[in-house]
Amino acid sequence: EAESNELRAYLSESQTVLASLEKQLLSAEETVRLIKSSQALMLTRSSDVQKALHPIRTLPNDVLAEIFLYCAPVPYVEPEPDSLCPKDHPWNVSHVSRKWRDVALALPRLWATVYLNFAAYGELSYRDCVYKGMLFFERSKGLDLCLTIRSGPWQEIVDHPLTAVLESSTARWKYLDAHVPAPSLQCFAGRPFPILEELYIAHERSQTPDAAPKLRVVTLLERGIAECVQLPWGQLTELRCGGNVFMSPAFVLGCRKMSSLKVLDLGAVVTSDPIVPNILLPALEELVVDHAERSGPLIGLFDHVLPALTIPSIRRLAIAPVIGDWLSLPVYPDFSGITHLHLAFTDPVFPDHSQNGFFRLMVGVEELWLTHDDLPLETLEQLTVIDGEAFLFPHLRILDIHDSHSEKDGSSAIFHTMCESRLRDKDVLEELKIARLEELRVPDYWYWALEDEGEKEDQRWRKICSLTKVVYIP
Questions:
Q1: What are the strands, taking DSSP E only, across 210-334?
Q2: Residue 118 backbone dihedrals phi, psi, to 5 degrees
Q3: What is the pTM of this model?
Q4: Which range is most confident: 188-202, 241-255, 286-300?
Q5: What dihedral angle (degrees, nearest 10) is formed by the CA atoms of 25, 26, 32, 35?
Q6: What is the mean pLDDT of the chain?
Q7: Distance CA 430, CA 455 (A)
Q8: How far is it, in rounded angstroms, from Cα 470 to Cα 456?
């Protein structure tokens, strides 16, 4: 009985102690909660103070404006933003703070580049589209507009109310990039384009503006476009088009009027239909030929387009890519005046140059660009010497060599081969017959690759660097 009483007394005392400890624990937890709450409050305040003291808040408005403009989208850069999306530029920078908003709204140039993607407006109400579009144009405050319009392949924008907003602004369009079906462009027919300078159209059967007195640069991608274009041909200075556009009879008629064209960029041709010859482009200075890889005999640009051109003022020629298994570069008398030559190779295999007069014709080349995936050493030797005697490019001043294999060792030997192929004594660089060479541009890894090529190669390279200016390109 005595033991039972003691145990009961202990149990009662234990419950009292536990109750006291529970109360102390609750008090301690409340204290911890208060401490953590105070800690969180201090962290928040400290963070706010740090943000307030951040150097970006002290930037002058003119510096902020330059940063905003630097972040602005550039035409032809993917992915393109959407001028109606609040997460894209310039809406995003105008929603950061009152100061940033004031700077953004006071900068009309920030709102003068417009990207409209109608394919993304399915979930937006017409009211939101029109409101944001009108707000965007209003904030540009009458500046010239660079406009890019996109839609789905079969999506018409004629009935979209935002199109009416666009129609009212055609007098401000300076640049237009339109990837919309033909009927969508036709809704702008008859509108004035007094300051339009550059036009880019991708879809077939698109109506182009004929009231554009300042239009100078045009890009046409589909052959069907050329059947209905009403361009001011005589005032164009730059033309970029797919080769098949050039095969259109209507387009050829327009070409005969291009007396001011200075730059012509031709894409691949996949047809064997010849075009009417004797197209005179008297002012053309630069020709870019982009020939895609294909199987079978060479057709298209070299066989059907270039022979039809008379280009007495040509000075710059770029051909890319040159596919080794069909390489037979064209020989035209007009090429004898070329001073700048750019060749891009993909696994090239050169034929016997004694039977290929292309390089023999290039006696006036002063600047040569070679872009390649894997250029064999014998290629540059062939580009330098014909039949072991005649030197090519005797007036070469600038040589620019690029390749995509930055990990490859021994790349500087490419230039050594080109140099030494002009020497009677392979060890005497002082007798280099390319003494006219003023500048050599090479990949920057050449400099580091010399460490792995040995002391002899390093000495040879240093000797070359003492004879000409070497520029390392990143």
A1: 217-220, 238-241, 263-266, 279-280, 286-290, 309-310, 316-323
A2: -65, -25
A3: 0.74
A4: 188-202
A5: -140
A6: 76
A7: 19
A8: 19
